[in-house]
């Protein structure tokens, strides 16, 4: 659907809030998360690309927020998506922190069946610390499904070394150990040749690639990780999942509870297939429990897991928290300039949809 956009973001969204959310521990190199929130006809939405992302990449995040808020009409979802469920299972997320912090971090998530642990914060040099952290995790939770995420920080050779070291922990999958799709495909072939029981999942190779379906075309992974904001919205994410034909896990981009609500909506509508049951089980856990990593959120309680699940709902921020967590005027101006730059990129590109495979 083609929609004529106003000349400026301010014409479409005259009022918005910029917040700084403190975290309970360093994650992805940050101890505070800056987010922009605004309200549209359908409710509140979040625009929160990481600070280092440029306008062209961040424009997809803006499109997702505008669609979720109802400022822009959402693209039609593909046929065959499932009816939405009322809640979704989530995994705990364990940052790359010292062993002494593992138990307290996991305790924040309560009872969960799946844990995703970050590894490779400093590439292969982090391997001894990663192994120590995983041994402690397995001591505390010997029966949970375990996922690892390297955020593409290994070379091909390092990824092989790390995979051999991690294989004994009984992984559900290993997410994005190497950057490129071609190396990911090579790694999967080599792991199979060595008989290592390590399944690969693609994240950056989906959300940062010009052709997100190349992962499926090359057989580079068995699972795709999808995130609503980076992919340009829920409908765009559903198309990628449908066209790839691969089991999918919905994950957060370290959003506030407002942003997590969009991810939960997507996760609740994903079909459960024979392939997803084999790898992910009957109720695939999504990576949307990350509100537990914030010391302060936009509501209290936030969209945090209870009994390993979060509800599928929309979140309206607490007005008092909008005031208490507001960024300083300098950061507000920075985000004002940034969103207008993204608006220009959005208007010029109109974000064409990912290519479809015949």
Automatic annotation (TrEMBL):
The keyword Metal-binding applies. Residues 95-194 form the Mandelate racemase/muconate lactonizing enzyme C-terminal domain. The keyword Metal-binding applies. Gene3D superfamilies: Enolase-like C-terminal domain (3.20.20.120). Keywords: Metal-binding. Pfam families: Enolase_like_N, MR_MLE_C. InterPro entries: Enolase-like_C_sf, Enolase_C-like, Mandelate_racemase_C. NCBIfam families: PRK02901.1. This is O-succinylbenzoate synthase. It comes from Brevibacterium ammoniilyticum.
């Amino acid at each position: 659907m083609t929609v004529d956009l106003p000349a400026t973001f301010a014409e479409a969204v005259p009022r918005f809030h910029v917040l700084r959310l403190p975290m309970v521990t360093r994650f992805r190199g940050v101890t505070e998360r800056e987010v922009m929130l605004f309200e549209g006809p359908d409710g509140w939405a979040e625009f929160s690309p990481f600070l280092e992302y440029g306008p062209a990449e961040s424009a997809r995040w803006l499109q997702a927020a505008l669609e979720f808020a109802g400022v822009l009409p959402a693209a039609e979802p593909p046929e065959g998506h499932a009816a939405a469920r009322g809640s979704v299972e989530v995994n705990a997320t364990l940052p790359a922190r010292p062993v002494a912090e593992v138990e307290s971090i996991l305790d924040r998530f309560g009872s969960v069946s799946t844990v995703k642990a970050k590894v490779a914060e400093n590439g292969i040099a982090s391997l001894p610390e990663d192994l120590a952290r995983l041994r402690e995790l397995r001591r505390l939770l010997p029966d949970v499904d375990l996922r690892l995420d390297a955020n593409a920080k290994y070379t091909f050779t390092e990824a092989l070394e790390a995979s051999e070291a991690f294989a004994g922990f009984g992984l559900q999958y290993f997410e994005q150990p190497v950057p490129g799709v071609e190396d990911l495909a090579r790694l999967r072939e080599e792991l199979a040749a060595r008989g290592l029981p390590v399944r690969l999942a693609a994240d950056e190779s989906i959300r940062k690639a010009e052709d997100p379906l190349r992962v499926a075309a090359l057989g580079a992974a068995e699972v795709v990780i999808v995130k609503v904001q980076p992919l340009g919205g829920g409908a765009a994410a559903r198309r990628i999942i449908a066209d790839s034909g691969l089991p999918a896990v919905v994950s957060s981009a370290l959003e506030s509870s407002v942003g997590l609500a969009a991810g939960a909506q997507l996760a609740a509508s994903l079909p459960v297939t024979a392939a997803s049951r084999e790898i992910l089980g009957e109720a695939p856990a999504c990576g949307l429990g990350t509100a537990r990593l914030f010391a302060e959120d936009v509501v209290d309680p936030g969209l945090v897991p209870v009994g390993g699940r979060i509800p599928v709902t929309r979140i309206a921020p607490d007005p008092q928290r909008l005031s208490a967590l507001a960024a300083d005027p300098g950061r507000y101006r920075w985000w004002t300039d940034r969103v207008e730059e993204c608006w220009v990129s959005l208007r010029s590109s109109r974000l064409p949809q990912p290519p479809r495979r015949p």
